[in-house]
């Protein structure tokens, strides 16, 4: 059985990317959101641009 990454718009706050990552990896969504905010604040890569790209490109659940 293969897993597929899906943006989770039903459990998401903005675009559902963090909720989708949490569902895919089996992690708590709060930890994923905290990690995203920390990465955005400390400037690790381009998390906001990546978030927007994933939100627009990835298939979603409703």
Descriptive terms for the model:
62 residues, two-stranded parallel sheet, 3 helices
Task: List SSEs in N-to-C order.
Answer: EHHHE
Please state how the strands of the largest beta sheet are arranged side by side. 1-2
Radius of gyration: 11 Å
Helix content: 40-55%
What's the end-to-end separation, in Å? 22 Å
Number of E-state strands: 2
Biggest sheet details: 2 strands, parallel
Provide the low-confidence segments as ranges.
none
Amount of beta strand: 5-15%
Task: Report mean pLDDT, rounded to a whole number.
Answer: 85
- CA-based shape: globular
Question: How many helical stretches?
Answer: 3
Q: Kindly name the structural category.
A: mainly alpha
Describe this structure in words.
By secondary structure, the protein is mainly α. The protein has a domain at 31-62. The chain contains 3 helices and 2 strands; from the N terminus they run βαααβ. The protein has a two-stranded parallel sheet with strand order 1-2. Helix 1 crosses helix 2 (29-42). The model has no long low-confidence stretch (mean pLDDT 85). It is a single-pass membrane protein. Residues 9-60 form the Phage shock protein PspC N-terminal domain. It comes from Sandarakinorhabdus cyanobacteriorum.
């Amino acid at each position: 059985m293969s897993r597929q990454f899906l943006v989770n718009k039903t459990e998401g706050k903005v675009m559902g990317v963090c909720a989708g990552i949490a569902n895919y990896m089996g992690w708590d969504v709060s930890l994923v959101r905290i990690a995203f905010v920390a990465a955005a604040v400390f400037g690790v890569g381009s998390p906001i641009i990546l978030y927007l790209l994933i939100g627009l490109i990835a298939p979603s659940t409703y």
